[in-house]
Amino acid sequence: MKSDAEPIPASTDQPRVLVVDHNRTNLAVMTRRITEAGYRVTAAESGANAIAELHRKPVDLVLAELYMPHIDGAELTSAIRSQAPWRDLPVMLITGKSAPSGAVRAYEAGADDVILKPFHFEVLIARIARRLARVRSIHVLREDNAALDARIVTRAIELGEMRERWLTAETERQRLAALVERDQA
Hints:
Rossmann fold; 185 residues
């Protein structure tokens, strides 16, 4: 079944989602459904494999199971947040347990969202799209800020140069005024 959420156009600019789940059936279903929604998907069966995938190729979002053996979703999130290149990478965790302690631990580790099972795939796809749109907006804002900073630096340099020219001209004006005054005396 196709998602009601706006699918992402098929292109090389499709966002890449890293899906992490130790359950192969869940991983296959998530991979298929997210791919059908128009995303490129990389799958990993463990937190360790997810970290290896992050080193292998960049992703735009991580969607992982919270409770996994060895490295769980919260530990994976902490590992992601500890690395400068991935610090702002969106991380969404999925859990089948309704106890708040897991979600609290996930948020404390830096997760952007915790999704409780069962969920509707349409809602999951919409949440992924919203999270990626927010990341794009932040990226554009950072680029705009960098451009503005560059303009400020350029203007500061121009003002410094204009001040030097003014000081030179003022010094010359005073010298000429002194010459005129001396000639008139």
